[in-house]
């Protein structure tokens, strides 16, 4: 008989996490809707909108918008996740497995509260951990094939992730299904959006609070916290909850979901399959309902058979899809078997599922309970009730006692439909043929079992039963971990299992490659920017030349959600109607391109497109230099405070360290410097594979640096110089993470100046080495020198780095025959990094860049990110997109700011507007994971922010001369031409405002940096543009934006170039005529004070 334990009510759980987990954060539902959860034992509300204070909460119900956000986050995170090594993904898996295993008991209580599963039977946390541990090392099992069966070809297959995978799990064993589906999907490089059941939203919740190393239930937090703690990047795993008619339907129909795995009812499975056919034909893998038969022959071990069958149908109160709900026993042993079954099936302890003595819990909810009652009435009508069948009043909980029917007709509804409760039908048979027909007479086919000692009979039934799994002398839930599990007929599509689930989440691609001239096999897969990844170019050997330069990228049609409106304030391209040409901009540039004195008193030429020249000219909009002034192209020195304070030049004689024992900072300081470099600098200017860098760094500290090359040490000193700039800032959170209080008592003895001195002392030896490391050293040193205001020296060192690259043939993609494919990709990435740095550093001086494609033929393709991943701080495709923008900027400068004598001084408005259109097209065709406003991994925020700042900076570059000319001599323009100037000037102002929006977001994300000059220079550019806007017309909005720019500069880390700018800022703003009101909320421009071009921002010309 069924015992009870009094149905004692458990204490309510406090602090349950109820929100959606999207892009690594918990968020409320967008429409504010929630749903409640009723305890199946007490009928009390477990979670409902703050009716009871402190412990009762509302579960956020996902809206269509929430599901879209989750899918977008997964889509944005997928390329970087797939590009990680197996080892990198493995560490996240193992950490999550350990955390869940540690908290199995807390998970058991949560399931008991939400759907009534007794804690005494709960092993799901351990099963979850087993799955994640197994799949943590399964990535290397995924391999393609090769074939030489076609003469002249090497035929390859690739197995690649789908992208975004949706997972919809049931309420009966949610954590197990979470692991069974999510772990293999992630292991092969997919990202996941998981929908949990509204009946068991607590299933993935974790409860713990550390006090005296004991775990309590005082603090509950959902599995998302463990996902974050395990190190999964944002967007890789997203969890939404709610009713299937909304979130489940959206996932099933979603065009960006490329595969879907579902476990649940056959009815819902059909709906999901229909949704797939109506949307993008995504593959659907279904594990559905069952009506599992067990056949007991007279020669079977009846004791074992009765025990196995009763456990199958009693487990989880019968709420399992493969429960043995139909038992066929041979007539000669029927009575004995039935008595044994009753003895083992009946004695259960019904009651509070949170108590350890309970082994039979309630049905999950009222709907499930009433459904079971319906089938009980059918069984009583059609069959013979021999045990149970009389539930207690539902007021005491939704408990259904173990129930047995016999002699039930095969066509009875209870024999043909899934009951999902502790109810079994036992019928009698005489012959094999009879029972085989009865067992197979169903539209289900998930599990079947046969009990016999006759091996021939066992094999006949194993072959003849129409089920995905057939147990011999065992029944469900027994399965083989390394064998497939799935259903025949209406019980599902596809198979799951340790060695089979991976196939669900992989696409197979064939690639025949012409290779009749191949001698050396060296695979390189390249995806040109904007091109569909299925259309790839493969180079099988270094001597197999395939020209991809003319490959046209495919432009994807953009819907309303992916137009350029996604970026703040995109302007429509200026209409390319009939328009005049202009020479006025050429006249302006004659004044902008000029000599200016630097901090040493030396005159240096500053090109017209330099920010220095433009910023200086803005201050003269009231009274520009007169053409009558002798030598007006030379900007005269100011009457005060000139030359600007020059930076202290390190004295090299006493700074040079020993060649056998070079100076190295304490290792914790070194790790801090390096971490900042990779997070803030290297994410934009890639020069080292991060694993290779850290391996060399470890060797350097092991050997004391005595075996290090001069170029390697020079690179380190330049990196240390950047990192040491903020040593005095004790509030730096990253410093606190890396440097212990004990180490900080004995700080690094070197300053930034000291490290620069060490680096510069090594430059002659770096020149002599003239290898790839030399290029890296000079490039990093150029960045450091620019940051510390040595602009000319930076330009010279950058030029030397390019010249060494030329000597190595990097611009022509030349490499030794014994060079590895990875090294080749490293050199390609270094070349294109130099290409970008060359233009950017030259632009600071307004000087020519060396890598000028008008006189230099560049043959080097972009690197393959399938062979060489850029690392965790740089998104995939970022280099290709940055390079295309940089090329466009070069063309703009060459056209709008001509330098060569052969270049025309006349600028066509159609050319200007075509550049605006080209920039807008570049933005629109950008890969979706790089677009502004799309959820991205925190480690990618800086590189993507800088990418978009570069875009808006390019838009200002093409339009700023027109805005400046309007402010200086706009009154001299005829009306048609002035209209064009006004239109282009508005584009310039709009670009400045959008660049400011990007900067504000970077400040919020803490991804803005002072370790390179670009952030600060871009902010200054915006101030200048906004100043011109105020000169045209007073605007409160522009005033507030200008004040925001000032605040951004003042709140940046005050080191190097940024520090000098902020120190000069109040004086120079006053000279410009910008005055802050007392309430600091309004700024206005006053031109009462005069200033010559040379009198503005002298410190900025260092």
What characteristic shape results from the CA principal axes? elongated
Structural class: alpha/beta
Let me know the largest β-sheet. Answer: 7 strands, mixed
Rg estimate, integer Å: 36 Å
Overall mean pLDDT stands at 79
Poorly predicted tracts of residues: 4-15, 47-57, 203-222, 516-578, 627-647, 649-656, 1077-1102
Q: Strand fraction band? A: 5-15%
User: Strands across the major sheet, in which order?
Assistant: 22-23-24-20-19-25-26
Could you list some keywords that capture this structure?
Ald_DH_CS_GLU, aldehyde dehydrogenase (NAD(+)), disordered C terminus, 4 domains, alpha/beta, Aldehyde Dehydrogenase, Chain A, domain 2, Aldehyde Dehydrogenase, Chain A, domain 1, 7-stranded mixed β-sheet, 1102 residues
Report on this model:
The chain has 1102 residues and is α/β, with parallel strands linked by helices. It has four domains: 63-142 and 151-209 and 219-286, Aldehyde Dehydrogenase, Chain A, domain 1 (3-Layer(aba) Sandwich), CATH 3.40.605; 292-486, Aldehyde Dehydrogenase, Chain A, domain 2 (3-Layer(aba) Sandwich), CATH 3.40.309.10; 661-874, no CATH class; 880-1076 and 1093-1101. The protein is 43% helix and 12% strand. The strands form 13 sheets. It has a seven-stranded mixed beta sheet, with helices on both faces. A six-stranded mixed beta sheet has the order 16-11-10-17-18-27, with helices on both faces. A three-stranded antiparallel beta sheet has the order 8-9-28. A hairpin with a 2-residue loop joins β13 and β14. α26 runs antiparallel to α27, α27 (821-845) runs parallel beside α28 and α29 (909-924) packs antiparallel against α30 (941-969). It is elongated, with a radius of gyration of 36 Å. It starts with a strand and ends in a 17-residue tail after the last strand. The active site is at 287. Keywords: Nucleus, Oxidoreductase.
